[in-house]
Amino acid sequence: MFCLSALLADLAGALSSDFSRDFALTPPPWAIASSSRQVTGFMAHSEVILTTNIPSLGAEADIVKVRRGYARNFLLPQGKALEVTKSSLRQINHLKAKRAEREALEVTAAEELATRITKFNLKFTLETGETGKAFGSITAKDIHDRLTKELGDIEIPKHAVELDKAIKESGEHEVSVRLHPDVTAKLRVLISSPKAVIATPTEETDEDAPRKTVRRKTA
Question: Is residue 119 located within the same domain as residue 181?
Answer without folding.
Answer: yes
